[in-house]
Amino acid sequence: MIASDTPLTAGAGAPQLVVPEAIFADHRIVADGEPRLVWPRGAVLTLERGEGEVIVRSDQPPSADAIAMFQERAGEAVGDLRWNDVSLVLRPASGWSMDARLIGPMLIVAFQRIAHDETPGGPRTGASELAHAVIEADLAAGYPGRGRREAQALLARDPDDRRAARLLADARALDNDIAGAGRDYRAQGATDRAAQRVMAAAGGTASAGLVAREGGDLAQLEASIRADVPVAATVGVGAGLRHLESRVDTSAGPREARANVVDAALAVALSDAVRLQLLASAALDDGVMGGGARITYGPAEAQWRVTLTRHMPDYVTPAQVLAGGYVSRAAIGGVYRLGSGLVAQGDVGVNRYGLADRRGTSDTVTLAGGIDYLIRRRYPLLGLSYRVEAEYVQSSGLDAAGTPLIPLADRENHTVQAMLGEALGEVQVTGLAGWTVDRFGGDGPNASLGLAAPIGLVWRVEASGGLTSVSRPGFSGQQLFGRAVLTRSLGAPR
To answer: Residue 211: beta bridge partners?
Structure first.
């Protein structure tokens, strides 16, 4: 159904002038007056009005030429315009107000200046508007790295291009450069809620979480608190405390164990493309201490990652829970976006598991990878995913009786899942359901439900839970799990 203004009639039987939708289908037909954006003929549109913004949902996207023409006509009145295959978000520039309405496949916007603040940089040209539209399309399709480079090129040519500056901040936010995006938004005086939340998070975050998991011979409850704060433009530090309560079912009956672990991290952005993180961790109860480093290279759509850690406290197997344990790991992997709705990723690593009072006792090789395909890009979202999670035991240390000190088994889980996502206001709800087959024996269902919801500008809550049949060290067969995290941003949102 096409949402539009209610026609004015003199009564139920009054004659009405019906204008065919084809009249609005050609974006080259633009009358003088209010800027208008025309979708292809037959597009189904709905209009939502939010706080200082309008959202148009559609079953197909507008063309890049139509976007460029709209921006050229609206000029400096446009503060933020983003779209993808199923939705478009429009916000006015600072000092402007707007009203919007739909007529057939056309969005008509009335802008009105409410303050005398001239936009620097001179008038916009059709070429610059098209360049902006190309960047917006890249960001909507999931290519923040490419969008960032294009926005930086525009700003190199015209440092006063406020639209390019906003797009650069948006690209940084999508690429998880929260500190850089926050600085850019603040420099522009951004007032929309999305930018304000990023500015608040750029000042640091504090979180409290709870994770529960049960399956096989092991059940665990982990409570944690953590804080991450910036100390310089490209440097941040983090620290956290984890408390674990575990129950292990042994031949002599259930045994319980507790552990407290302190974590610390130093994160450094060496450039827009390279980020380094130094890690340290210490178990307060059994004296296990370790550290390592993680480096990522490239933007979110094409990124390499390398991790190297040694002697990090670890409690994933019953033997490590009861005696204290650690793991050392070297891994390399990456993620690559094959298209706007198709992403592939993979990691391979070598691992050494050990107990607190011994050297490494078990060596393994791990493999993890998968493909995600977003079939439907409008709400409700629909997607499919394939995952492989495998671990192959290379050697195991034995005790005097010939029993492995840390019993591990080869596993190779292949999982296919369907995803359904919906937005309930600002709350994002995601459901997953599928099936897992282990090549070494065993299969079973997977099902989970998760939600993420911002609360105001500085709070955010995330929760998920469900059933999984993906076997892991210490957790064989089907397992139940649940997770909840409450996060508060420490920076100022304005």
So the answer is: 222, 483
**Identity of the residue numbered 126:** G
d(CA 250, CA 239): 34
Domain boundary among 172, 201, 230: 201
Whether residues 313 and 242 fall in one domain:
yes
128 — phi, psi (to 5°)? Answer: -70, -35
pLDDT tens digits for range 357-414: 777 689 999 999 999 999 887 778 899 999 999 999 999 888 878 888 888 889 999 9
Could you tell me if 193 and 147 lie in one domain?
Answer: yes
SS3 295: strand
- Quick one: 271 and 153 in the same domain? no
Per-residue model confidence as pLDDT tens digits over 86-134: 888 888 887 788 888 888 888 988 888 874 444 434 445 555 677 887 8
Q: What whole-number distance in Å separates Cα of residue 296 and Cα of residue 350?
A: 18
User: Which pair of structure tokens corresponds to residue 88?
Assistant: 């478009």
Asked if the structure places residue 2 within a domain, the reply is no
Domain end call among 183, 201, 219: 201
**In which band, very low, low, confident or very high, does the pLDDT at 473 lie, cut at 50, 70 and 90?**
confident
Asked if 193 and 264 sit in the same domain, the reply is: no
Residues 6 or more apart whose Cβ sits within 8 Å of residue 417? 384, 385, 387, 432, 433, 434, 446
Q: How far apart are CA 216 and CA 218, in angstroms?
A: 6
Chain-centroid distance of CA 158 in Å reads 31
Give yes or no: residues 181 and 226 share one domain. Answer: no
Output b/e per residue, 342-379; b: 16+ Cβ within 10 A. ebebebebebbbbbeeeebbbbbebebbbebbbeebee
Q: What is the CATH number of the domain that holds 473?
A: 2.40.160
> Looking at the domain assignment, is residue 16 inside a domain?
no
How is 192-211 classified by DSSP, letter by letter?
A: SHHHHHHHHHHT-EEEEEEE
Looking at residue 59, what DSSP letter applies? S
Same domain, 239 and 185: no
Residue with token string 């076997």: 471
Which domain does 103 fall in, by range?
21-201
Structure tokens at 490: 């420490």
Tokens 């650069």 map to which residue?
168
197 domain-assigned: yes
User: 196 to each of 81, 114, 181, 201, how far by Cα in Å?
Assistant: 17, 21, 11, 9
List the beta bridge partners of residue 219.
214, 247
